[in-house]
Amino acid sequence: MVWDPQQYLKFSGHRLRPAVDLLMRIPDFGPREIADLGAGAGNVTKLIKERWPAATVTGVEGSAEMVAAGRKAAPDVEWSHEDLGHWRPAKRYDLIYSNAALHWLPNHAALFPAVMDKVKPSGMLAVQMPRNFLAPSHVLIGETALNGPWRSKVEHLVTPPPVEEPAFYHDLLAPMSANIDIWETEYLQVLEGENPVKEWTKGTWLTRYLDVLAGDEKLAFEAAYGMRVAKAYPKNAAGQTLFPFRRLFMVAQRKG
Questions:
Q1: Domain final position from 130, 147, 174
Q2: What does the pLDDT look like over 181-212, one tens digit per residue?
Q3: Does the keyword Methyltransferase apply (predicted)?
Q4: Residue 175 located in a structural domain
Q5: Rounded to an integer, what distance in angstroms lies between the CA atom of residue 59 and that of residue 1?
Q6: What is the pTM (predicted TM-score) of this model?
Q7: Taking Cα atoms as reference points, which of 87, 42, 32 lies closest to residue 65?
Q8: By residue range, what is the domain housing residue 214?
Q9: Which helix (H) or strand (E) segment is 110 a member of?
Q10: DSSP type of residue 145
């Protein structure tokens, strides 16, 4: 995927809120080495550094465009431009934080224990992932993909939801954890503008499909999805679009 920082940050306030909610649930235990996995444009990584200014904070990000934006937003953070799927650090961290990133990686049954293994004893793992993939915003992307002349090019992208039930992650992490807190929050996001749910997904999940297409076909796919999703999320009397969005959170302390 080619990430567009401006498109992603179009709804920066709504995207930032769960990241801050996760950050505020982490105890103030004085971490010295912190990794932010999927640091994106650095707006959250900057907050991590502000909370623990004495810590060495490393932002790990696979998109060159996002890393460039991150270096501007958080110049006092160390940046590592590498694919999260190939992240194999030589050291362990006091805190590994990841906001809206790990759902892009497959095989969570192996991934989460592997990430937890890179947390120091008594350190913390803090993760937030969207769990909105069965909502119309995401289901209609797959429906559009399977019902158009582009089907052969994009149908391989129509896959089951990448994030499991909360209990799945509890069972994975509990054997390695001294304590673990897992919860979900559904945010009722009030969006402004023309077809804002399409614009929202265009910054993340829809990008996977648009990147495969080109020219008029790309525009036609976006338009076809836009018509479907606008009907699913109509404007209210005030001209606003209500977009419920569920997110999964976990904060786990590794056994000492």
A1: 130
A2: 999 999 999 999 999 999 999 988 999 999 99
A3: yes
A4: no
A5: 19
A6: 0.91
A7: 42
A8: 131-160+187-245
A9: helix 108-116
A10: H
